[in-house]
Amino acid sequence: MSSNGRKLELPASIVIRDLAQKIEKSPIDLIKKLMSNGVMATINQTVDFDTAAIVVGEYGFDAVLEVAEEEKQVETGEVPLWRQMIADENKALLKPRPPVITILGHVDHGKTSLLDAIRQTDVAAGEAGGITQHIAAYQIEKKGRLITFLDTPGHAAFTQMRARGAQGADIVVLVVAADDGVMPQTKEAIAHAKAARVPIMVALNKVDKSNANPDRVKQQLAEQELVPDDWGGNTMVVPVSAKQKQGIDDLLEGILLVADSNDIKGNPSGKVLGTVIEAELDKSKGTIATLLVQNGTLETGDVVVVGTAYGKLRAMTDYKGKPIKKAGPSTPVAVTGLNDVPSAGDIFAVVESEKIARAIVGERLDEAKTKAQFRKKVSLEDLFANVKAGEAKGLNLIVKADVQGSLDPIVTELNKLGEGEINVSILHAETGNISVNDVMLASASSAIVIGFNVQADVDARRMAEKEGVDIRLYEIIYRMTEDIGKALNGMLEPKLVEKIIGRAQVLQVFAASKFGRVAGCKVTDGELKRGAKVRLQRGADVVYEGDLSSLRHEKDDVKEIRQGYECGVGFKNFSDIQSGDQLVCYVVE
Ligand code: GDP
After folding, report:
1. Which terminal residue of the chain, N or C, has fewer Cβ atoms less than 10 Å from its own Cβ?
2. 3-state helix, strand and coil shares in percent for the chain, rounded to the nearest 5
């Protein structure tokens, strides 16, 4: 490597194609140079910094490692609500509090095993032994300091909980199995952590397995902008075996180190608030809610408001089931006394009296009604206005495409658009249809979902409708870049919006001479209207989209038909109807 060459910043790992582009050489040339250095690589393969440095050295460049990779990851997404709510606490009164940890990762990579292994390191928790009930959070002691763990269910159906787990945490421990590497849910977890601006450290699990390949995993992590510390990056990667209980102490010490560099504080005498970890209705005790106190000190007898539930706390127990009277910042507690079951992820706060609590809840119920109609989420149309008004700093995107080959250029194009005045952050880019998980992530981070040559699953559409998430589908790249570009410049023309007016279920299919085949349906929701648009869905697929051309009730032609009634529906030029299909009727406004 020449020491007086041109300086060139390189990441900890880089794809050959990108490297070639960076130094403006042909990739073939580069591959030849690599070969002459004994490295066989194809254009799509990644090389580490050291290898890249040697090769670019031969072209007269002096490579230096790009710094602050990890700082980037906390700049996207929005600051979680509870953090915003305590932003005005008196700095002088802030005291260090235990870090709150969420363990996330791909299914079967060992989240549950790791949580169990950690719990067993704590003698006190061990003594509690045959714990009688499932606890959604626990604390352990390490070096005389407490660490709080949130035990979010690992089940795929609990993405929502995981998204919220990341919202409540100070640090995300990402479990990656050393024999399996970075998988789709690993990427999703990274996206959730970034969206909640929570620092990530990695527990490289299953290192006891004979086919464990830590280096390959580190490479994959680097590709996700999580550059391992031993590669010169900022992401702590701790090898562990949850099964053999190895490396657990290192992991806990690592957590304390990450905690120390993140200034985790709260005001024990400040306003009392925190997050609901989980809640359920118990037949004899009423609502039992597991709360994580994040600021202030919660006491029995306090009046708590959470969402549209409220109540005076009757009893409070710690994670071992022991009754306690007070709980300070980062303490998980189970409480009774709420009049209703709150949702996991909701923020609770203590108010002065039950009268005030009732007033707040009343207001919220009214608000919820209006909000259901006018959700304040980002749509592409609103984006420019929001940025102008200082309410949004940029555009967050989730990108789905049919194949990797189209995903890469799309991401490149979108990143280019973000080089102007308004920042574009791609929180997650992956191949496949738009799923509920994508919509959840978009909702949690006020992002827009872009689909290229893909569809949105039926459940995803429904969720998007409910959460007010904007899904944009494209088939041509320039149409997409044109749209987004226009939005960034405040020039997007108002979009035609689809408004769903009714749904029906196909119960039977009839042959009718005039219309071919006719669907015998029952209207399950709203109404169907002749002349409106319809979509026929079979499972996750849309099998027909077009006009509703005939509508009959018994033997009569009708203009519309309401919920609860049965009817016959014919479609223009389409007769492949099956019983069980779902019919969605909508108008375009
Ligand atoms: P989760 O789905 O992420 O919660 O994963 P689990 O904790 O349920 O673990 C999935 C499987 O991996 C189980 O069969 C565990 O016994 C196994 N497992 C977890 N950790 C380790 C480990 O460190 N080494 C080995 N060999 N197996 C492990």
Report:
1. C
2. 30, 35, 35
Residues of the domain holding 280: 273-361
**Which of these three, 435, 467, 491, is where a domain ends?**
491
Q: Are 361 and 308 in contact (CB under 8 A)?
A: yes
Query: Ligand 1 pocket check: which of 243, 245, 248, 251 to mutate, most ligand atoms within 8 Å of Cβ?
Result: 243
Do residues 416 and 544 both lie within one domain? no
Give the integer Cα–Cα distance in Å for 37 and 277.
54
Give the residues surrounding ligand 1 with Cβ less than 6 Å away: 105, 107-113, 154, 205-206, 208-209, 241-243
Inter-CA distances, 39 with 35, 36, 227, 344, Å: 5, 7, 22, 51
Task: Work out how many domains the chain is built from and give that number.
Answer: 5
Residue 369 domain-assigned (yes or no) = no
Please, how many CA atoms are within 13 Å of residue 576, restricted to the half-sphere of its CB? 7
Looking at residue 299, which CATH number applies to its domain?
A: 2.40.30.10
- 185 with 320, same domain? no
| Residue 75 clears pLDDT 50, i.e. is over it | no
Residue 316 has pLDDT above 70, yes or no: yes
Interatomic CA distance for residues 91 and 273, integer angstroms: 17
Please name the helix (run of DSSP H) or strand (run of DSSP E) that holds residue 82, with its range, or none. Answer: helix 81-85
Distance between Cα 54 and ligand 1 center (Å): 40
Q: Rounded to whole angstroms, how far apart are CA atoms 510 and 497?
A: 33
Instruction: Identify which of 200, 134, 135, 146 has the alpha carbon closest to the alpha carbon of residue 169.
Output: 200
Query: Tokens for 424?
Result: 């574009």
pLDDT in tens, 346-372: 889 999 999 999 988 888 887 766 655
List the end-to-end C-alpha distance of the chain, in Å, as a whole number. Answer: 63
Instruction: Decide: pTM greater than 0.70.
Output: no
Evaluate whether residue 182 is within a structural domain. Answer: yes
CA neighbor of 249 nearest in space, from 124, 127, 137, 121: 121
CA distance 494 to 483: 11
What is the residue-wise DSSP string for 503-571? EEEEEEEEEETTTEEEEEEEEEEEEEETTSEEEEEETTEEEEEEEEEEEEETTEE-SEEETT-EEEEEE
Examine the pLDDT at 155 and tell me if it is beyond 70: no
Cα separation of 565 and 448, whole Å? Answer: 37
Q: Is the dihedral of CA 460, 462, 466, 468 positive or negative?
A: positive
Which of 208, 233, 266 is where one domain is finished?
A: 266
One domain for residues 206 and 119: yes
Q: Assess whether 176 and 35 both reside in one domain.
A: no
Cα dist. 23→13, 43, 266 in Å? 15, 15, 48
